[in-house]
């Protein structure tokens, strides 16, 4: 598609809307802005604008829409599928300056934020006010705008659900520059099509979120994790459906392999409290009293021991949580540091298929001759599988990458799983999405895109 | 024997309830109509002061006090490494002089080691009235029992009123041992010291992780011990001419014999994890090339600092991942961190914002690092750092 | 080798709020936990037991609730525990605490090695270890990083000193305080938790001690007195300097000098 280039003339007009010191061009734009966290795809925007308000964004969009200049929105740039990369150059709007927490409504139990507020800032703010914002994706320095745009999930999804479940209302600037308000502080809503829910997970292709009303819950007073060693991954993963069946409702069920733990030990320069066993699951329980939490975890601990767990370790104090969860938090970086290049697969499968799918990746790794470590949210079926290049030649790597991705997405499909659990489609996973969804679904999606963005200027080349 | 006395005639079911709530340690119980104070009691006296009047009384029966007039002088324990006097010693001598002015008592120094007489003379330039010297091959290295025996001998001979010890590793091992031997008070890590006219040493120290300050005295016992960390007080200026004298002390050989034995001294500094470092120089993308790291390294070595960096420098392969500060790296809590050319991403700031003193050098005055910095220097690190290094070298 | 580890129960969070008037901990919602520094000594003890055989026992002084820390230590692998608890120990300073502990240790029996954490998170004095060793009349070493050898009634230990490490030979019995971060403490085991008998913990009070003189314990046995408690001054300075390279470097020099970093 042909887009209009940003030249001196366009910059002059943009400077009328935005003060000059927030408009960066050419060399001034850091190299970071041409890729996201995984860096698979790279392209620099022609101009980077640090926006501060809905009105500014609206004015820029009106102009860009008229001039047919592509626009990409970027938060902290922690995405993994290239959704915030300016594929076609044009304008990049950086929202990290819109980082105010606007209102805490203790009567409606909502918090209203600008999109550049970071997840860690929001969760800290909520906790200071005795609330919990439950979505808990691993990347704490991501912006809320980004979280909403990918419908990020995170560790606590088993008990609390994902970002979508906590978005009550959105203020959105459409590609045409019009400003619309979707949803609100209301709890129920059956007023027409839910455009709010279309916006969530749309990865910056439909509109620009400039304000969000989020739901909060009361802060649980106590949380305890259990680290449960098993002799092998099969035994560990087979215990997970049983745990879910037991109705004990942990907030999180994560699984980890010994190999991944060893990478994290190496990366952090710190020993994990236990690395004797081949496979572990890590669960967290929260509640309002230690007694209640102990009751909950007791059931699961017994169940796991019956299912062959070697022991159940109790992770109850700040130090112990630190020693376990800091390793869990470093897995992505640790695997990244262990290899020359990597790519990731974020499939989600029904929870009773997790064990089968992981077994399949192990098999695949053997057959293809590629290292494929994984970890993830066993409790919600969302797996993070990493394909490591190690010493492969570029050609061999690309070829094997295609084969492995292809095989994994086919297997996920066979298990009635989906392409992405929480990282999104962006640029990297587009073809897998269209293959799985087929023409009818893709046609509807393209129609929706067209309805929001008739000129196709907003984040072109992504998702659909 | 001081104790809490429960006046049972004044206890009712209602005020018992109140008393149980008042006790911060849940030490008060009320069962079968009888109030009890349990082993959780820390004698905080909240129940006496805030409870129903007269229900619980504090009965104070003072143990007899020593005759304080028999104990005179303020002693500073000389911390040294094979004769090289640790600067905390001079800082304590300066403070001891101030304290001594209140009571008009002398300032002593206790110097234990081997071949240290020449070093002892240096102390006379800082206002010590008398240096007590225990010089013996057996005292070449620190071993707890011989050192404690020497300290004991010194106290018995000279009867000092107060003893100030540097809160070094050695001081924190030796001082409590000797204090326990005299069954007297020792207050650790004092930040303020003062002297009462009755020779009671007023000691102020942070408690509960610095959430509160406590003022502590040792009213009935002598000597009174305290430890003070390095760089809390200031060293006095060196005087033109020495004054005071050196007294060589002799102690029975058998007091110096011990089954403990020093096998080795390892000088090579251990690879300190930046999480534990007191002083850190952190570098970011403002450093233009790998060769320029030498600048930061020189600064770090002059300050005795560990070097750390941001994530992009790890990705560039300039550093090992163990040097990375930030959410995906280490969290540090340094006494001083100097950031050079770091814009201050949230990922980075989250890993260092709890440091005591944050000094940041960056060209861009709008950089977010200046939101977390206590002292921001808006300028070019390539101008500031070399000039600073130059000055450090000249001053030395 | 029979080892005794001294542990302490401390407030569960580091953000303890203190009443600025009374200096007393605000108890609302403050759970307790084992002093984090003790975890390293406990782990070291269990590693030594693995290498040399013997037992690892734990002792603590505190209110009846402190039993839970002993049980926690047993869940981590300790063999048995002992609580020293008596109202008459209340208000003890370092000397009185160390003396009480030494009496309890004597009562528990003969040990080859006594281990302590390097300090506690609530008191922060790092003095109880050395003072207890004095009252037990055995040698001690503080800030032990590693035990490299153990044989014939001797240990070879490496200890942290200022600017260097000292390797020394210690005769047994002795007391060591253990440096932090020298190992990764193991986690409490649920299996052990299920099998431990809470009544199996012995409790000693003053009546069980050899020295029953009340004047040696608690407030009465404490030479130090807290005269006053007050909130610390908050120093939240924030300064931004602009100027030439030379001006700024001078400013930086003055700042670091004033702050005693140079």
Automatic annotation (TrEMBL), chain A:
<protein>
    <submittedName>
        <fullName>FAD-binding oxidoreductase</fullName>
    </submittedName>
</protein>
<dbReference type="InterPro" id="IPR004113">
    <property type="entry name" value="FAD-bd_oxidored_4_C"/>
</dbReference>
<dbReference type="InterPro" id="IPR006094">
    <property type="entry name" value="Oxid_FAD_bind_N"/>
</dbReference>
<dbReference type="Pfam" id="PF01565">
    <property type="entry name" value="FAD_binding_4"/>
</dbReference>
<dbReference type="InterPro" id="IPR016164">
    <property type="entry name" value="FAD-linked_Oxase-like_C"/>
</dbReference>
<keyword id="KW-0560">Oxidoreductase</keyword>
<feature type="domain" description="FAD-binding PCMH-type">
    <location>
        <begin position="40"/>
        <end position="219"/>
    </location>
</feature>
<keyword id="KW-0274">FAD</keyword>
<dbReference type="Pfam" id="PF02913">
    <property type="entry name" value="FAD-oxidase_C"/>
</dbReference>
<keyword id="KW-0285">Flavoprotein</keyword>
<dbReference type="InterPro" id="IPR051914">
    <property type="entry name" value="FAD-linked_OxidoTrans_Type4"/>
</dbReference>
<dbReference type="InterPro" id="IPR016166">
    <property type="entry name" value="FAD-bd_PCMH"/>
</dbReference>
<dbReference type="InterPro" id="IPR016169">
    <property type="entry name" value="FAD-bd_PCMH_sub2"/>
</dbReference>
<dbReference type="InterPro" id="IPR036318">
    <property type="entry name" value="FAD-bd_PCMH-like_sf"/>
</dbReference>
<dbReference type="InterPro" id="IPR016167">
    <property type="entry name" value="FAD-bd_PCMH_sub1"/>
</dbReference>
From TrEMBL, chain B:
<dbReference type="InterPro" id="IPR029035">
    <property type="entry name" value="DHS-like_NAD/FAD-binding_dom"/>
</dbReference>
<protein>
    <submittedName>
        <fullName>Electron transfer flavoprotein subunit alpha</fullName>
    </submittedName>
</protein>
<dbReference type="Pfam" id="PF01012">
    <property type="entry name" value="ETF"/>
</dbReference>
<comment type="similarity">
    <text>Belongs to the ETF alpha-subunit/FixB family.</text>
</comment>
<dbReference type="InterPro" id="IPR014730">
    <property type="entry name" value="ETF_a/b_N"/>
</dbReference>
<dbReference type="InterPro" id="IPR001308">
    <property type="entry name" value="ETF_a/FixB"/>
</dbReference>
<dbReference type="InterPro" id="IPR014729">
    <property type="entry name" value="Rossmann-like_a/b/a_fold"/>
</dbReference>
<dbReference type="InterPro" id="IPR033947">
    <property type="entry name" value="ETF_alpha_N"/>
</dbReference>
<keyword id="KW-0285">Flavoprotein</keyword>
<dbReference type="InterPro" id="IPR014731">
    <property type="entry name" value="ETF_asu_C"/>
</dbReference>
<dbReference type="Pfam" id="PF00766">
    <property type="entry name" value="ETF_alpha"/>
</dbReference>
<feature type="domain" description="Electron transfer flavoprotein alpha/beta-subunit N-terminal">
    <location>
        <begin position="74"/>
        <end position="267"/>
    </location>
</feature>
UniProtKB/TrEMBL annotation, chain C:
<dbReference type="InterPro" id="IPR014729">
    <property type="entry name" value="Rossmann-like_a/b/a_fold"/>
</dbReference>
<dbReference type="InterPro" id="IPR014730">
    <property type="entry name" value="ETF_a/b_N"/>
</dbReference>
<feature type="domain" description="Electron transfer flavoprotein alpha/beta-subunit N-terminal">
    <location>
        <begin position="22"/>
        <end position="213"/>
    </location>
</feature>
<dbReference type="InterPro" id="IPR033948">
    <property type="entry name" value="ETF_beta_N"/>
</dbReference>
<protein>
    <recommendedName>
        <fullName>Electron transfer flavoprotein small subunit</fullName>
    </recommendedName>
</protein>
<dbReference type="InterPro" id="IPR012255">
    <property type="entry name" value="ETF_b"/>
</dbReference>
<dbReference type="Pfam" id="PF01012">
    <property type="entry name" value="ETF"/>
</dbReference>
């Amino acid at each position: 598609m042909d887009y209009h280039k940003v030249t001196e003339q366009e910059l002059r007009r943009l400077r009328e809307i935005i003060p000059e010191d927030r408009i960066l061009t050419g060399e001034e734009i850091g190299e970071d802005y041409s890729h996201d966290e995984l860096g698979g795809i790279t392209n620099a925007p022609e101009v980077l604008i640090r926006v501060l308000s809905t009105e500014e964004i609206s004015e820029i969009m009106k102009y860009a829409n008229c001039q047919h200049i592509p626009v990409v929105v970027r938060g902290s740039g922690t995405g993994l599928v290239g959704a915030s990369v300016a594929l076609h150059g044009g304008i990049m709007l950086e929202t990290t300056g819109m980082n105010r927490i606007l209102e805490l409504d203790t009567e409606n139990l909502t918090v209203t934020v600008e999109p550049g507020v970071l997840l860690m800032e929001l969760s800290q703010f909520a906790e200071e006010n005795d609330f919990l914002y439950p979505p808990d994706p691993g990347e704490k320095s991501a912006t809320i705008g980004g979280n909403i745009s990918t419908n990020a999930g995170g560790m606590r999804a088993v008990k609390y659900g994902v970002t979508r479940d906590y978005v009550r209302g959105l203020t959105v600037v459409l590609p045409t520059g019009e400003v619309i308000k979707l949803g609100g502080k209301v709890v129920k809503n059956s007023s027409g099509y839910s455009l709010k829910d279309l916006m969530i997970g749309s990865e910056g292709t439909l509109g620009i979120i400039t304000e969000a009303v989020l739901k909060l819950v009361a802060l649980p007073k106590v949380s305890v994790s259990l680290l449960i060693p098993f002799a092998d991954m099969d035994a560990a993963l087979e215990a997970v459906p049983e745990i879910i069946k037991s109705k004990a409702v942990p907030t999180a069920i994560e699984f980890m392999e010994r190999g991944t733990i060893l990478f994290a030990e190496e990366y952090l320069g710190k020993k994990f409290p236990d690395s004797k066993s081949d496979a572990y699951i890590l669960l967290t329980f929260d509640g309002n009293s230690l007694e209640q939490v102990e009751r909950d975890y007791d059931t699961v601990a017994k169940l796991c021991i019956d299912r062959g767990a070697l022991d159940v370790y109790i992770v109850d104090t700040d130090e112990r949580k630190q020693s376990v969860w800091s390793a869990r938090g470093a897995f992505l970086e640790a695997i990244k540091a262990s290899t020359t290049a990597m790519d990731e697969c974020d499939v989600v499968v029904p929870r009773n298929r997790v064990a089968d799918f992981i077994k399949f990746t192990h098999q695949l790794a053997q057959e293809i001759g590629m290292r494929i470590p994984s970890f993830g949210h066993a409790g919600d079926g969302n797996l993070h599988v990493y394909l490591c290049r190690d010493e492969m030649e570029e050609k061999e790597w690309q070829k094997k990458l295609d084969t492995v991705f292809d095989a994994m997405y086919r297997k996920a499909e066979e298990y009635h799983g989906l392409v992405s659990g929480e990282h999104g489609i962006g640029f990297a996973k587009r073809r897998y999405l269209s293959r799985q969804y087929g023409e009818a679904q893709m046609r509807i999606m393209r129609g929706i895109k067209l309805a929001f963005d008739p000129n196709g200027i907003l984040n072109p080349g992504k998702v659909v | 024997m001081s104790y809490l006395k429960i006046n049972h005639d004044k206890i009712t079911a209602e005020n018992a309830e109140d008393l149980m709530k008042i006790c911060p340690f849940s030490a008060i119980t009320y069962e079968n109509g009888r109030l009890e104070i349990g082993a959780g009691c820390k004698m905080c006296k909240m129940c006496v002061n805030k409870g129903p009047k007269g229900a619980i009384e504090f009965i104070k029966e003072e143990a007899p006090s020593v005759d304080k007039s028999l104990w005179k002088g303020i002693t500073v324990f000389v911390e040294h490494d094979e004769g090289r006097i640790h600067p905390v010693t001079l800082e304590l001598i300066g403070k001891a002089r101030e304290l001594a002015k209140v009571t008009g008592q002398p300032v002593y120094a206790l110097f234990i080691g081997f071949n240290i007489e020449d070093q002892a003379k240096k102390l006379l330039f800082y206002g010590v009235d008398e240096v007590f010297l225990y010089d013996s091959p057996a005292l070449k290295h620190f071993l707890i029992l011989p050192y404690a025996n020497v300290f004991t001998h010194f106290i018995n001979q000279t009867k000092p009123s107060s003893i100030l010890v540097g809160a070094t590793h050695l001081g924190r091992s030796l001082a409590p041992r000797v204090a326990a031997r005299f069954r007297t008070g020792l207050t650790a890590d004092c930040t303020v010291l003062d002297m009462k006219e009755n020779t009671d040493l007023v000691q102020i120290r942070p408690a509960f992780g610095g959430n509160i300050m406590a003022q502590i005295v040792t009213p009935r016992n002598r000597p009174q011990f305290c430890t003070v960390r390095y760089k809390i007080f200031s060293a006095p200026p060196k005087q033109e001419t020495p004054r005071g004298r050196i007294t060589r002390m002799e102690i029975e050989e058998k007091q110096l014999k011990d089954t403990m034995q020093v096998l080795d001294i390892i000088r090579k500094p251990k690879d300190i994890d930046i999480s534990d470092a007191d002083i850190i120089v952190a570098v970011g993308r403002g450093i233009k090339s790998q060769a320029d790291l030498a600048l930061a390294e020189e600064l770090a070595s002059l300050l005795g600092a560990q070097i750390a960096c941001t994530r992009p420098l790890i990705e560039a392969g300039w550093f090992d991942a163990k040097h990375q500060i930030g959410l995906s790296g280490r969290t540090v809590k340094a006494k001083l961190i100097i950031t050079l050319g770091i814009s201050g991403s949230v990922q980075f700031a989250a890993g260092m914002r709890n440091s005591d003193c944050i000094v940041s050098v960056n060209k861009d005055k709008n950089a977010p690092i200046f939101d977390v910095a206590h002292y921001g220097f808006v300028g070019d690190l390539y101008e500031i750092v070399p000039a600073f290094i130059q000055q450090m070298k000249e001053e030395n | 080798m029979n080892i005794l580890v001294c542990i302490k129960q401390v407030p569960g969070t580091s953000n303890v709020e203190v009443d600025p008037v009374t200096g007393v901990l605000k108890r609302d919602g403050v759970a307790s936990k084992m002093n984090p520094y003790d975890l390293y000594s406990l782990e070291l003890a269990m590693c030594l037991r693995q290498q040399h055989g013997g037992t690892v026992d734990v002792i603590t002084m505190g209110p009846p609730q402190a039993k839970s820390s002993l049980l926690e230590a047993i869940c981590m692998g300790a063999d048995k525990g002992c609580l020293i608890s008596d109202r008459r120990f209340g208000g003890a300073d370092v000397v009185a605490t160390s003396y009480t502990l030494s009496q309890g240790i004597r009562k528990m029996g003969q040990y080859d090695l006594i281990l302590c954490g390097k300090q506690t998170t609530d008191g922060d004095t790092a003095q109880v270890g050395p003072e207890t060793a004095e009252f037990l009349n055995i040698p001690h070493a503080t800030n032990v990083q590693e035990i490299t050898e153990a044989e014939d009634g001797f240990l070879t230990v490496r200890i942290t000193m200022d600017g260097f490490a000292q390797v020394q030979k210690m005769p047994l019995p002795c007391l060591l305080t253990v440096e932090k971060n020298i190992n990764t403490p193991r986690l409490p085991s649920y299996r052990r938790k299920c099998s431990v008998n809470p009544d199996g913990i012995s409790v000693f009070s003053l009546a069980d001690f050899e020295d029953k003189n009340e004047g040696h314990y608690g407030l009465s046995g404490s030479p130090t007195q807290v005269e006053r408690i007050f909130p610390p001054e908050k120093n939240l300075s924030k300064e931004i300097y602009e100027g030439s390279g030379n001006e700024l470097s001078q400013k930086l020099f003055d700042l670091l000098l004033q702050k005693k970093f140079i």
